[in-house]
Write the structure tokens for this entry.
Amino acid sequence: MSGITQAPVTMAGPQSECSVRLVDADRVASVKSRMPANGEVADLAVVFGLLSDPGRVRILIALLEGEMCVCDLAATTGLSESAVSHALRLLRGPRVVAVRRAGRMAYYSLADAHVRMLLDLGLTHVGHTGQERLQIAGTR
């Protein structure tokens, strides 16, 4: 067992506390070597923060169907045009959405396939966990 220190882990109430500060040095070194740079972690946190607002999520889900203008996004999501414009401004900064201008009109779309994958995975996860909750509730 290379790199693994065998030491008891004490449990103190609802939180656990390690009696040693490093249990598996090889795993820690391996994970640390693959940890993204601080800037990348911060950028990812910004993207996840943008996904914390249900209105912005509704806009992104609408854009899964293709590009749309502010008016159509407002009608689709039930948000005001002002709220949609503000949300799109926030989503453009970290390249979550892209804009295409045609004369005076602006059409918005998901920035790339990664954003689509993130939304698809999130929706799948929510649907999966929702089904589990229903099954658990049905067995009580």
Q: What stands out?
A: The first strand starts at residue 9 and ends at 12.
